[in-house]
Every structure is written in C-alpha cells, then in structure tokens.
Amino acid sequence: MTANPRPSTVVLVPGLSGSPDDYAFVHPMLARRGRVVTVDLSTEAAGVSFDAQVEHVRRTIDDLADQRRQHDGGIGEQEDDGGIGEQEDDGAHPIVLVGSSFGALVATAVAAADPRVTGLVLLGGWLAPDDRLGDALDHLVAVRERTSDLLDAVARLLLLSPSASSGATPPLLPADELTGRRLAWARSVDLRHVHVAAPVLVVTGRADALVSPALSQELVGTFDDVRHAELDAGHALLAERPAEVLSLVEAFVDGRLAQGPVEAARI
Amino acid sequence: MSTIPGVTQVETVVVGAGFAGLGTAIRLLRSGRTDFVVLERGDGVGGTWRDNHYPGVGCDVPSHLYSYSFRPRAEWSAVFAPGEEIREYLTEAVEDEGLAPYLRLGTEVLSMRWVADAQRWSVETTTGAYSCRTVVVCAGRLSEPRVPAAPGLESFDGPVFHSARWDHSVETAGKRVGIVGSGASAVQILPQVARDADSVVLFQRSAPYVVPRENRQYTPAERRGLSRVPGAVERLRSRMFWDMEQGLAARRAVPGFVDSLRATALGHLAQQVPDESLRAVLTPDYEIGCKRVLLSDDYYPAVASSTVTVVPAALREVHGSTVVAEDGNEHELDVLVLATGFESTRPPWAERVVGRDGGTLAEHWDAGMSAYASTSVHGFPNLFVINGPQASLGHNSAVFMIETQIEHVLGALEHVRSSGVLEVSRTAEEEYSAWLDEAGEGTVWRTGGCTSWYRDDRNGRLTLLWPDFAFTFRERFGTFDPAGYAGAGSVLG
Questions:
Q1: Number of A–B residue contacts, CB under 8 Å
Q2: Residues in chain B with pLDDT < 70?
Q3: Which of A44, A121, B169, B221 is geometrically suited to a Cys-Cys bond with A98, CB 3.0 to 4.6 A?
Q4: pTM: predicted TM-score of the whole model, two decimal places
Q5: Which residues partner with B161 through β-bridges?
C-alpha cells in the first residue's frame, strides 16, 4: 500500500536474539506504507559491548540520513509519491525507533542521545532489571552455558504466555555466544537516568514472566510524552501477538495515539 | 410530506436478515431506534446459514470469532461449529433482542427508487410498499447461486440442485452422484456424500489448496469455564482475530509466509494422498491464497477413496443422464450437485435499485462494483451497502467487517437524521477505489495466476476484497466521518 506513505522511517531493533527474524512479520507489513529498516544485532560486526550495539543503531540512522540526502528528498521506491519533499526540505528525517525486549534498552539509549528520533516504541521493555528479571536473565545465561540444547525450550516457557499457540516456530533464543553477551548486558545496563523528549509508546504483556508490572509502570512513568498498551501475551510480544503490535506501531507512527492508555482494535 | 395510502412510512429499511441485516437491526434497536423494518425474501432468518444446509456445512472461521462481539456465546460446541448451530445463533439473536416485530419475512424487494422531490426511497416489495429516508442493503455476498451454463443441464434425467438449495428429499446413498465444483462448499459436501454413495464424480475446474482444519469439540467443562470466567470469551476471540490477521502476510506474497502456507497445504496433500497421479490432479497451478484457502481434514481422504473419481475439467453439456466434461469424457449419473458458488461480483439485487439519475446500481457498477468506504455509492443518496463491494476478506472473519460497517452506517444514519441527505461524491468513491487498487497490487489475488470470486473478470479488479488488514478497515471506517464523503482522501492514509 504505497498510497499516503508515512513521512518517517521506522527502524526496528531486535531483542535478545539480535536477529531481524524477530520482525519477520512486522517489517514487511510496515513496509507496505513506508520505509522500514531492521537492524541486525546478531553478528560480531554489530559490536562487542552494549554501547557498541547502541552505536551500531546510531550509525544505521546516519546511513539513512545520508541515503535521504542523496535521494534529494525521497528515500526509496516506497516513498516517491506522497509529498514527502514539502514536509521535510530542511534536512530533518524523522525516525521512529522500535525496540523489543533487550532491543528496547538499545533503542531507549539511542533515542535519549539522538534528536533525529522523533518517536520511540518499546515492546516488553524495562530500564533496569529488578530481582525477578535479574534472576530470569541469570538462569537463561546458565542454561545457555550448561545445557544449551534446552535453551529454546526454557526460553519458550519464560518468554511466551501459557495461552500462546503451541505450533512450531523458529527458536526464540539461539544458543550462540552473542546471545549470551546480550543476556549479560541486559543484566547490567541501567537506563533509569535517561531522558527521552520524543513521544513514546510502551507496549507490555499482561503475562510477561520476566518484566513485572512494576517494571513496566516504571517505564511508563519515566517518559513525559507517553502512551501505553497492555496485550494479552507474555514477554515475546512479537512472537505472540505480532499483528496487534503492528497495529499499535502503525497507529503510533501515524500520530493517531493520544497520550495515556491505548489499545488496538476491540474485537 | 403526504402519506400515500398503502405505503408504510419508516425511517430506515434494512434489506436482508442474515448476519449483516440482523446485526444492523440489533444495533439500531439497542441504540433506541425503533423506526425501521427488516425485509427478508426468505421464510426465515440466517441468510447464508439459512440457505446452506447441505451435508457437512460449516464455516472456515472459528465460531468464537465468527459471531457478534455484542453477542458473545460461550456455548459454541466446537472450534468450527456446524452451520446449523450458526443459524440457530442468529435465530436466538432475533428472540433475545426482540427483533420479531421489525422483521418482514417472505418479503422480496422488487424495486428501490430514489424519489428526489421527497428525498426518500420508494421500496416496492411482494408484500407492500415502503417509503423511507434511508436504506441499508444487507443482501449478502453468497446469496445468489451461480449455475453453470452447460447445455442440457435443465433436462438432466435425475435430480439436479445447487448446493445452497439442497434437496433433502433426494437420496444420494447408493447413487451415482456428480459434484460440480471444488470450492468451499464442495470440499465440505464431498466427504459426506462419498460415505454411502455408489460413486462420486467430482468435476474440478481448478484444484483448491486445502489446509488442515483441526476442528475439535469443546468439552462441557471448557464451555462452562468460558461462560463463568469474566472476559474469557473475549480473550479467546481476540487471540483468534489477531492470529488470523497474520494471514495477510501470505496474501501479500511475503516470501517466508506464503512459502510456509503453501508448504502446509502441499504437505497436507502429500500426507493424505499417497497416489502420485491423483496428487498431480489435486495440485493447484496457481499461487496459494489467490483463491480462498480451504480447511478440511476429510476432503483428501474422501477424494482418494475408491468411491470418488476426479475429473480435472468443468462441465460441458448434459444429455439425459450422461454428463460430459470439458475433457470430452462422459459420465452416467443419477444425481447432480452444483457446488458452483455464487454471483458475487454482479449482485442481481443491484438491478432493482434506481438512483438519483434514474440509472440502476447495476448500470453504475457495469464495469465492476465500487463504493466509498466499501459502503456508499455516488448517485445513490442515503443508501448503504453492507458486505458488498470491497468488504470481504481472504484471511479473517467476515463478521468483524460487517460489524465495522454497521457502526459506520449507524453514524451515517444519525447524520442523515440531523443534517439531511448524505451522498458520497464521485471523487471520494473514485479515490477510494484507486487507493484499494493500489493496496491490492502485489497481492496473490492479483498476481497469483488464478480466476477467483474475489476478482471481477470485467476489469480484473478486486471488487469484492478489502485487500488489507481487517483492523485497518475498522480504524479508518469504523467511525462515520462526513468529511470523507466529500473526497480528497483525508481518511485513507
């Protein structure tokens, strides 16, 4: 659907897996009405520290701005007919950053330091782990190190709600070394001091076994310009309710969500 | 306004008493409106679910989702309840909601004509005339059986009937039965008929994709639990809806998703049909999703049984009891079932609607149906069509779309009450169609290489389909906005 394309580019940051596969559904569906880029944090090239992963996302945004300048106001085949030029001829290229789980930490850190980010979506996010989340991350690290063949099964139990469909799906957490590092970074990073000026959408899972309601509330309470939605799902919102997440992200990107509690279509 | 003797004056005439018409009536009544009637040509309510009572009839959307959000039902017997249960659900809705006084059964609309001087619709029916300010057409998408134009069909020696006009007085047990068509109805009928027929010949013009149905009964404990725990039905329904929304990715030909759906269907075929040559006949030659993807666990085993012969050809002609297929082969049959679908892209009722300029709606739709917000047509003021053009889905529940349209129409009816005549501009209608054409580009419905009832063969356009998510339709059109009726695309974004 290229009619009425979005003026902003959406940048998607994956979760603990670091893999763009997290957005296998959301990315192509968002792309039907505008430019979407999914960052790959699953490779060594994406950095060897939390800060390096943040830097990797920031550079992706730099690249987008460069491409935009080169295209003289139109960045790509999906946005050539929507009057983008007249809205943004001053070099401003709005970016909506979407981060899931660990990726929400990365996205928050980027958004706090980069005024080009004009919107931030956090899926199953938090700012700093509490005891419960710390324990869960520690256990996942231990399972990966000691019985890596069980990691996916354990991750499934922890990250999906009991109502999730039991069909075969790709692994939520690959048992590789970089996943181990991301788990460790998720354990140690503390973003409670950050300030994000851009509008924020916080999406949480009612049955999230990792992120407690208190942690989610802290997240909602941190930002000045925030709307928040709670889905009937566990931590892995993208695995469990991808279409509902998509509907909220689209509504947010289009500026259709007022501050406060929001919800997707009532069924 | 003068009152003409014998003409019943009402604010709103609703045409049709299926899901759309009854839903409209319920919402009208619940919002305190009593100045309407529901005209129904049949002798009972239920629409599709009244007409289709063939053996094995069922819906391919789970019942908790294929029902009104404002009438949740914890007692559905199965994930996919039988068609009869869906009909009962609608009958029960009429009783519970007190709709009977507003229903006019056995009343067929002969014509609907816009009277400019009075700014009202004049509706002629088989049981009397009505004059009304607004009309809501809920005549159904699958209500006019399509009968193949095979010469000699009417002179077939044995019983011949359409699947939506099943003749239960005809015994198929021990008989040589022909089933024409291999769509959603045939896939349900064939396993039932093949159980005790002497033989079944299936005339298959093009093979459908079939995926596992995996239906199951809900246990009494599950049903009682659903009814006792507040919000349980709503949560189940919501989960079903959002799961089904993911199906759009395959329809938009997103590689991983369309590949996975195709692999599921072809894997189902391979597992259930070991014979290679039969499997070849049952393998579709177009992309999955282009036609409706069917759900069945007993179709392939029935087709593979010794009772059934698949003829990979349409019907050519009929002589006495001899039925000739397009491949030239002749088959001696006792009973002929036409599971050949419905006139969905050219609804016959549109010939009976005369608009502001004196032309019929069928003429307006001569090159294919269109309607702003899938609901309102230029030249036809104060008339709203539910479940008509560009409102069907290939991946989710029709009832969700119907409910969305009902809410839109209720807003429009209030607008007419307060502000007078409402007519969509030509610009708005054309912009909407152009926008949907663009949205449908790249989907399997356009590129999948099939002919289907989603696509109008007069213009190649997807005149029946809303080619996007169900939720986007609700976001954009679930609330009536008069601004959109003027045009300039303000609500399309």
A1: 72
A2: 1-4, 488-493
A3: A121
A4: 0.94
A5: B337
Q: Given an 8 Å threshold on Cβ–Cβ distance, is B245 in contact with A2? A: no
Residue A85: CB atoms within 10 Å: 12
3-state helix, strand, coil in chain A (%, to 5): 45, 15, 40
- Residue A80's SS3 state is coil
pLDDT (tens digit, 9 = 90+) per residue, B51-102? 999 999 999 999 999 999 999 999 999 999 999 999 999 999 999 999 999 9
Tell me the chain A residues in contact with residue B248 when contact means C-beta distances shorter than 8 Å: 29, 243
A9-261 maps to CATH 3.40.630.10 = no
Distance CA B376, CA B385 (A): 6
B153-208+250-338 matches B7-143+343-486 in CATH topology: yes
Query: Is-contact B138 B386, C-beta < 8 A?
Result: yes
**A29 in contact with B at a CB cutoff of 8 Å?**
yes
Contact of A244 with chain B, judged by CB distance below 8 Å, is answered with: yes
Return the domain boundaries, chain A. 9-261
Q: Which residues of A touch B65 (CB under 8 A)?
A: 267
Q: Read off the tokens for A121.
A: 């979506």
The superfamily in CATH containing domain B153-208+250-338 is FAD/NAD(P)-binding domain (3.50.50.60)
User: Are residues B294 and B58 in contact, defined by beta-carbon separation less than 8 angstroms?
Assistant: no
Quickly name the fold that domain B7-143+343-486 has.
Answer: FAD/NAD(P)-binding domain (3.50.50)
Write down the number of H helices and E strands in chain A.
Answer: 10, 7
Residues in contact with B132: Cβ distance below 8 Å, sequence separation at least 6, in sequence order: B9, B10, B11, B12, B13, B120, B121, B123
Contact B439 A242 (CB under 8 A): no
Distance from CA of A101 to the nearest CA of B (A): 21
Its ipTM equals 0.94
Beta strands in A39-190 (DSSP E): 95-100, 117-123
Whats the size of chain A, residue-wise?
267
Widest pairwise Cα distance in chain B:
73
Structure confidence by residue, pLDDT tens digits, B332-366: 999 999 999 998 889 999 999 999 999 999 999 99
Q: How far apart are CA B135 and CA B111, in angstroms?
A: 12
Q: Do residue B235 and residue A242 have CB atoms under 8 angstroms apart?
A: no
CB contacts of A38 in chain B (<8 Å) are none
CA dihedral B314, B316, B320, B323 (to 10 degrees): -30
| Domain ranges for chain B | 7-143+343-486, 153-208+250-338
| Sign of the CA dihedral running A99, A100, A106, A111 | positive
